[in-house]
Each structure stands twice: as structure tokens, then as C-alpha cells.
Amino acid sequence: MNDASSRHPRPLWLKHLTPTAVRAILKRDPRLIVPVGTTEQHGPHLPFGADTIIVERLADDLSTEFGVLRAPTLEYGVNTVTRTEYPGNATVRRKTLHRFMNDLVGTWEAGGVDQFIILTAHGHDPHQEALSTLRTRGASIRTVDIFTVPYRQEDEAMPIHGGELDTSLLLYLNADLVTLEEAQDFLPSGRRLRGYRQAVGTIPAESPGSLGWPTRASVEKGRAFYQVIYERIAVRVFGRDPTVGSETG
């Protein structure tokens, strides 16, 4: 499925399908895309579901292009530690996410899935550990942290929490959900920044809840970031010919 004419007209949402339809899809392609988001603050300018919105769009576009079944989204993960309480934050423990996901993949594997592609936009170590240590009887699991796909550590727009990258992607995907006039630039220095970039740090109390330069964000940057992320996943995870592009909206 390498061109727009071969794309399905819509994502293959598991929750909208019957057992007969799912059986037929898995017989043709036994993969399952599982988007895992968070309900977590990303500063005063972004919605709690920022991570979730990004991976849901990727899951929909990938399902549409490749005809792969798309599971319902899991909207909760292991949130980054904060020094301030944010009303609305909802987190689970690492072992809770791990056990819950193990139950899910075990059930789906028994029903015919032999490869799981887990998409997440949250690099916090305990969250990643919960998703990358799942066990199956024989099915393979590929956990994709979408922000590690195209970026280098030195990139200023790297996925610092609620910064330029997150904000640009949300402006592109759903600008109505972004309150850009409330965005505040903040970046810790030294050891605290290194710790956060290594996915073990916390969100400082003196920050607005976000880290980075959200005021630099734009729709155009978001479109470019999304395209890079999508293309890399399409080629590296789904096996698309790298010389063939696609339309993702």
C-alpha cells in the first residue's frame, strides 16, 4: 500500500468492528496498532490529552495507509513526576500499566494477533519500562516512542515537555485546543536539564508546568514535525519503501 489510491478510506477501528470482520482483517494482516497516551498537564497552554491526541492521529493515519487493525486508545500512563499538583492529572503506577497491558495483549494474542505495535508519545522511564517489558506466548511486540524516531539530543526542538515540538504538533493537529497566548518559555539548566532529557528528571516547581520554548511553535513546524515522525515510522516499523512518500493530511 504505497500510494494514496491504495489507502483504506478510514482507519480500521477495532471498537467499530464485529468479530467476523476482525477475524478477516487479522487473517490478511495479523498486526495490531495500540496507541497509549497519558492524561497529564503540559503547561498552561496545552490540553491534558496532548500525548494522546498525537498518538491517536498517528495510529489512525498508519491504520488507514497500511490496512492494519487499530485498537482503542489507552489514555492513561505513568506521568512525569512534578513538584506541583495539577488538578486533572491522572496517572497510574508502572506495575499497574504493565499488568493491564499484559492482560490486553494476552487476550488479543489468543484472538489471532501475532504482532503488536505500541505507539506512545511519552518518554518517562517508568512508562517506557512498563510498555517495553510485556510478555506474550509468541507474538512480537514493538514499542515505539514516537519522539525518539527522528530527533537528535542536540536538537533545540527535541521533545521537552510542552515545548516547541509538542505545541507545534498540537497546533497542526487541532489548533483549537492550544491557548498559545498562555505559553511560557522555561528551561532548567545543568544537571536538572540533563536528568530530564535522560527521562529521569522531574518538572521543577518554578516552571509553568512545561519545559522548552513553546512560544516558538507554529502550525508549519507542526506539519513538518508530524511528517518526519510519520514517514520514519512508516518506513522503519511498517516496512514502506523509503523512496515512496504518502499523504497524511
Structure notes:
Mean pLDDT is 89; it is low at 1-5. α5 (164-174) crosses α7 (219-236). The longest helix has 18 residues, at 219-236. By secondary structure, the chain is α/β, with parallel strands linked by helices. It has a single domain (9-235), classed as Rossmann fold. It is globular and about 50 Å long. The chain is 36% helix and 9% strand.
Mean pLDDT: 89
CATH homologous superfamily assignment:
Creatininase
Q: Main sheet: which strands, in order across? A: 1-3-2-4-5
Number of helices: 7
According to DSSP, the number of beta strands is 5
Element pattern in H and E = EHEHEHEHEHHH
Shape-level CATH architecture: 3-Layer(aba) Sandwich
Query: What fraction of residues sit in β-strands?
Result: 5-15%
Rounded to the nearest angstrom, the distance between the terminal CA atoms is: 17 Å
Strand count, sense and closure of the main sheet?
5 strands, parallel
Which percent range fits the helix content? 25-40%
In terms of structural class, how would the helical and strand content be classed?
alpha/beta
Q: What value does the Rg take, in angstroms?
A: 18 Å
Q: Output the CATH topology.
A: Rossmann fold
Residue windows where pLDDT falls under 50 for at least 5 positions: 1-5
* Domain unit count: 1
Query: What is the class in the CATH system?
Result: Alpha Beta
Summarize the structure.
The protein is of the alpha/beta class and 249 residues long. The chain is built from 7 helices and 5 strands.
